[in-house]
């Protein structure tokens, strides 16, 4: 992992030197913008509309438009000086219960690891947070952007989740077409609660998959091998004419879904036993890197 930030967590007069690492990764499949006619990547240029010339990065400053067409500007040095006062400190302001924070405030998660000289203070802080079952609410500045942050223990490791300030959360009054609160039909409510109960389970993040990514990887593999990309027809929902019918159909569907996995598992086990226990995910293992290799080797054979 690459260190994205160095500093210290501070609360009271205590300082815990830490390094910051991103805790999540983007698994989106990278796509380039191509010219359709020639299949070559297009270029983005930074052009000044006044002098009609390309602008290099060292000629660029940031500006705030305080009136239409009028800007105050800041260069990189000025912005760094504005952020320098707190840019190396995660300053904890309060300790609160995690349940008190609405998830709408959370942004991006980072891991915090101790500096070589801060292992003892780091372990002490981790154990103190676990003992009190609290999280710290802090101020932090990362890449010239200030934000709130929640400092908590995740699986024995200090983590930091950047948060929005209250003023960055849009009020619900701005949401159009919200219905007024009204009484609902008791039978519909009972069936809705029953459906939620049937679909409830413990949270197991490993069982959720990015279905679009899987389909895209398979389509990439098919195109690399020169196959026609075929799309499976979408499952049609049963025709329902009322909310009650929809609830009944959903309950029936969820009951069937609960019975299906066991049958599928037994079929998979039989197939695995016949094939000697091998199970390979065709799209994931082939489309990312080997696809490139195969296309190169194919071009050599054809003399391309």
From TrEMBL:
Task: Offer one example of a GO biological process linked to this entry.
Answer: DNA recombination
UniProt xrefs under InterPro entries: DNA_bd_Ku70/Ku80 (IPR006164), Prok_Ku (IPR009187), SPOC-like_C_dom_sf (IPR016194)
Q: Where is the composition biased (Basic and acidic residues)?
A: 255-273
Q: Can you tell me where the transmembrane regions are?
A: none
**Which spans of this chain does the record mark as coiled coil?**
none
Basic residues bias located where?
A: 289-304
Q: Which GO terms describe its molecular function?
A: double-stranded DNA binding
Keywords from UniProt, A to Z, are: DNA damage, DNA recombination, DNA repair, DNA-binding
Is DNA repair among this UniProt entry's keywords?
A: yes
Region spans: Disordered: 246-304
Q: Which family does it belong to?
A: Belongs to the prokaryotic Ku family.
Q: How does it assemble?
A: Homodimer. Interacts with LigD.
PANTHER family in alphabetical order: NON-HOMOLOGOUS END JOINING PROTEIN KU
Identification of the protein by name:
Non-homologous end joining protein Ku
Lineage, please? Bacteria, Bacillati, Bacillota, Bacilli, Bacillales
Q: Which gene encodes it?
A: ku
